Amino acid sequence: MYHVLLAVDEDESRSTRIAEAVADLPSASTEVFVSIFHCFVDNPAGASATQVGSVRTVQNLLEEAGIDNQVLEASGDPADAILEAADEEQVDAIYLGGRKRSPAGKALFGSVTQSVILSAERPVTVAGKTRTAE
């Protein structure tokens, strides 16, 4: 079984795109298990990850594709939390969303994405926002 950590923030479009990338993996419905991961930077209300809209959207998309999954959560620095969860869950790969950058910033990823890419001891896949019809 190929185990993926899918890091989800609050952006629905970015989260959907990365979930679609996982769902497009060969034999995803029979050979892939996904740990949907959300890190709260600030959570004074004590919400759970399953209350975050993008997490629910990703979970529904994966379930419709027949992909087994679980939801994990943490609080603190997102990059550190993603890497820690990847180690604890012993995942095969990390999937996370990228952001559209300005022309000057295209050479750099966002700070969380860049930190994960540079520090991960496993493959990292980055996907952008959902394509829109033109």
Describe this structure in words.
Strands 3-2-1-4-5 form a five-stranded parallel β-sheet, with helices on both faces. The protein is 37% helix and 24% strand. The chain has helices at 12-23, 28-31, 53-64, 78-89, 111-119; strands spanning 2-7, 32-40, 68-75, 93-97, 124-127. The protein has five helices and five strands. It has a single domain, classed as Rossmann fold. Helix 5 (111-119) links the parallel strand 4 (93-97) and strand 5 (124-127). The mean pLDDT is 88. It has 134 residues and is of the alpha/beta class.
> Beta-strand percentage?
15-25%
Q: CATH first level: which class?
A: Alpha Beta
Structural class: alpha/beta
- Largest sheet features: 5 strands, parallel
* SSE pattern, N- to C-terminal: EHHEHEHEHE
Uncertain runs are none
Q: What is the tally of beta strands?
A: 5
How much helical structure, as a percent, in the residues? 25-40%
CATH homologous superfamily (4th level) name: HUPs
CATH topology: Rossmann fold
- Globally, the shape reads globular
Identify the CATH architecture: 3-Layer(aba) Sandwich
Strand order of the largest sheet: 3-2-1-4-5
| Secondary structure tally, helices | 5
What's the mean pLDDT score? 88
Rg: 14 Å
Organism: Halopenitus persicus
Pfam families: Usp
InterPro entries: Rossmann-like_a/b/a_fold (IPR014729), Universal_stress_UspA (IPR006015), UspA (IPR006016)
Protein name: Nucleotide-binding universal stress protein, UspA family
